[in-house]
Amino acid sequence: MNMVISVKISTKGRYALRLMVDLAQRKPGENVALKEVAARQEISLKYLEQIITVLTKAGYVLSTRGSNGGYRLAHSPEYYTVGMILRLTEGSLAPVACLEGEENTCDRREQCATLFVWEKLQKAIDDVVDNITLADIIANSADNYVI
Amino acid sequence: MNMVISVKISTKGRYALRLMVDLAQRKPGENVALKEVAARQEISLKYLEQIITVLTKAGYVLSTRGSNGGYRLAHSPEYYTVGMILRLTEGSLAPVACLEGEENTCDRREQCATLFVWEKLQKAIDDVVDNITLADIIANSADNYVI
DNA sequence: TGTTTTCCTACAAGTTAAATAGGTTATTGT
DNA sequence: ACAATAACCTATTTAACTTGTAGGAAAACA
Question: Disulfide engineering: B90 pairs with which of A6, A98, B18, B109, CB 3.0-4.6 Å?
């Protein structure tokens, strides 16, 4: 049967991660036109533009306009965790709203028997995404290229 | 701004869990009218009816019609894991579609550098939800009742 | 000046979440 | 018998969100 819990990562987050990995695989400081990334990753250019806007505004990538322009990472691949990228593009990674912030704590919090389940879940999720960097992803994918 | 939660458990799954915990806190074999659960948990009765239908059809709860009727657990609280309940009510979606089953493996699978991230995430989530039972939840919430 | 590329804003089809609504059938107490 | 109760069944709704498309403006370079 092999059923799975519905923990959906949207295309926005997934594409953002693939985009960042793509940039990380280039020479440091080299400008990469989004058009190229779109072609390589088979993602719509216009959609990628929207996604990278967020990454640019957060200072994760640097941009250069005009011909020979493009994007490049602001830091080395070791710097970026999956969590940083997903939180930025997906929003909070909390499994339930009441874990998201002070403003979302519900009235039932004290009586809520299930709260500790969500807390455990959140810790497990954070533990994964905060301990994988772009460098890890690249290293791992390199292992898969069997000659 | 109210940004979207990406790794999110829907109300359906959350309510199902609260419903099951509520039933588990009753005397074994005692019929509990859904109306009571709805009042206690402050959830719409009509919405709960839809949710418990799934649990009933799966054989997780037993139902009795008519006055003095209601619902009761088919097994003891130790039997039910959070994973069982969430998978049933949330559906069978993986963090990403390509992990869902044979039929969804995408063309890019071999080149997909990010796949192992989603695999790790899935394992971490499964590890949490498959190792907490209704009995654990009840035991834990009992600890919180400070006199 | 023309080309390239980032940047900005709007819109839209499709899907899903989260209920609401209104009834039917079975069982039990009176 | 009959009213009350509670499960059961099916349809509809509303709003939000996803997943893009679309069209152009501004900047840089050759």
Answer: A6
**Cα gap B37→B20, rounded to integer Å:** 10
Predicted TM-score (pTM) of the model is 0.89
Q: Copy the structure tokens of residue B59.
A: 């054989």
Q: What is the pLDDT of residues B61-71, one digit of tens each?
A: 999 999 999 99
Residue pairs between chains A and B whose CB atoms are closer than 8 Å? 145
Copy the structure tokens of residue B31: 């019929």
Q: What is the largest CA-CA distance in chain B?
A: 60
Read off the pLDDT of residues B69-117 as tens digits, 9 standing for 90 and up: 999 999 999 999 999 999 999 864 457 667 766 556 666 665 678 889 9
B135 inside 8 A of chain A by CB? no
CB atoms within 10 A of CB A116: 16
* CB-based contact B130:B119 (threshold 8 Å): no
Would you call A57 an interface residue with chain B, using a CB distance cutoff of 8 Å? no
